[in-house]
């Protein structure tokens, strides 16, 4: 088994006033040549955006972009559909940038901060037709169970959003005292685990809130929740 520990306080950080951004991997002004990506996982940003603020229209291409709001209201608009769309906590948004897409993201609230994860996954198909997907997931379905959010367009999995990569993104809320055995898809995959909140022990490593651990070169591993915890799993080809 191979592990990679990222403590929350060691992430890249940028304070733009309206935006508080934590970068698990090199992004924007944060550059660490030894921390560019984890397999096909290129970006995991943990952002807090002030009310009525956000990112103006900007382009992407050949990237799979997944956004998971944690609190607040995300408003999204792109050149595939000009209307503003709300993405709420409990929902997940995916965008295959492919040949090119322009989009805007703002905090849709006048008084509440927006907290979200944005994930970029390097695709296994280039220059595909851009596409957009959004889905609500029931919070109860991830209580002490793995809730699959995103899978490959080639995977035979109903109920998940789709991207152009052999990846699996999932969440779990694990009660304190519970354990869970995670099984990886293949020897060629690794999983990057972000502890959203709580305290867990995974393979002798204890993760506090926003600590992360990459695990590869194994079939399974055991998670022990030391108190109520929320986990995000991003499994990708290594």
Automatic annotation (TrEMBL):
Pfam families: Pirin (PF02678), Pirin_C_2 (PF17954). CDD domains: cupin_Yhhw_N (cd02910). Residues 11-121 form the Pirin N-terminal domain. It comes from the Bacteria. Residues 149-236 form the Quercetin 2,3-dioxygenase C-terminal cupin domain. Belongs to the pirin family. This is Pirin family protein. It comes from Bizionia hallyeonensis.
């Amino acid at each position: 088994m191979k592990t990679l520990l990222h403590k929350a306080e060691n992430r890249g950080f940028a304070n733009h006033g309206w935006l508080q951004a934590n970068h698990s991997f090199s992004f924007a002004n944060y550059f660490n040549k030894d921390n560019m990506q984890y397999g096909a996982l290129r970006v995991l940003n943990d952002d807090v955006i002030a009310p009525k603020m956000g990112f103006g229209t900007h382009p992407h291409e050949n990237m799979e972009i997944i956004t998971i709001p944690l609190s607040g209201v995300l408003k999204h608009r792109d050149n595939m559909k000009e209307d503003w769309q709300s993405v709420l906590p409990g929902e997940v948004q995916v965008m295959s940038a492919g040949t090119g897409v322009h989009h805007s993201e703002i905090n849709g609230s006048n008084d509440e901060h927006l907290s979200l994860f944005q994930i970029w996954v390097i695709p296994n198909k280039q220059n595909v037709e851009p596409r957009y997907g959004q889905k609500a997931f029931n919070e109860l379905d991830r209580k002490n169970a793995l809730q699959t959010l995103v899978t490959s367009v080639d995977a035979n999995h109903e109920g998940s959003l789709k991207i152009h990569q052999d990846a699996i993104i999932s969440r779990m809320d694990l009660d304190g005292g519970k354990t869970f055995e995670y099984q990886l898809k293949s020897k060629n995959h690794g999983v990057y685990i972000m502890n959203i909140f709580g305290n867990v022990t995974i393979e002798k490593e204890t993760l506090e809130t926003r600590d992360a651990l990459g695990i590869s070169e194994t079939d399974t591993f055991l998670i022990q929740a030391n108190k109520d915890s929320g986990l995000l799993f991003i499994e990708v080809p290594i």
